[in-house]
Amino acid sequence: MTTAKLLIICYNKTAFMSEKKLKVGWFSFTCCEDSTILFTELLNDHYQTWLPKLQFVHARVLQTKNIWGPMDVAFVEGAISSDSQAETLKKIRQLATKVVAIGACAVTGRPSGQRNDFPPPLQQEIDSILKKFNYGKKVKKLDELIKVDAAVPGCPMNEQKFIEILNLYLTEFAIN
Ligand code: SF4
Q: Ligand 1, closest atom to CA 78?
């Protein structure tokens, strides 16, 4: 069992020991998932502080049992490159009270969306690949499709800014 999986079991088991926890989701779309790696490292570093305060509703990178249910905060990494991804993102928006864009790809659409800037001949060259995998013509940043409540810029994400926003929501949702 990986350290990350062990951590997540501990985080979720303590859900039964604590009165109230911040229900969070972590989602990745088109990206390299480097911010996910940073996030798991942060979980290790802040284990003692966050363990009694966080409950993971959905985090495929950390656990196999995930729920499509209401959550306080959804952290979303990556750009949106297909209609099916856009639908999933909208579903997340409906389930989450707050949505946070994580990393440059989610916040600005780049670098994952650099194909948007390809000149026409290059666009033509990749057209068959886009069709084959049902990708859209353009890659989109999150706020082109949904309302985004907060953003953590950086490639990968700025760790301090992430901690700042997490702490903000712990306070806002009255998680002590
Ligand atoms: S913002 Fe950078 S680190 Fe994050 S997914 Fe995109 S390319 Fe990867």
A: 5
Average pLDDT, integer, range 112-116: 96
* Whether the CB of 155 sits within 6 Å of ligand 1: yes
Ligand 1 pocket check for 153: Cβ under 6 Å: no
- Asked if the model's pLDDT at residue 17 lies above 60, the reply is no
Q: What pTM was estimated for this model as a whole?
A: 0.91
Give a three-class secondary structure readout of 93-132. HHHEEEEEEEHHHHHHCCCCCHHHHCCHHHHHHHHHHHHH
CATH class of 3-172: alpha beta
Q: Which two tokens stand for residue 69?
A: 């249910």
Please answer whether residues 76 and 29 qualify as being in contact, where contact means their C-beta atoms are separated by less than 8 angstroms: yes
Q: In the chain, where are the structural domains located?
A: 3-172
Q: 76 near 110, Cβ under 8 Å?
A: no
Q: How far is the CA of 18 from the centre of ligand 1 (A)?
A: 34
Q: Does the beta carbon of 103 sit less than 6 angstroms from any atom of ligand 1? A: yes
Distance CA 66, CA 43 (A): 18
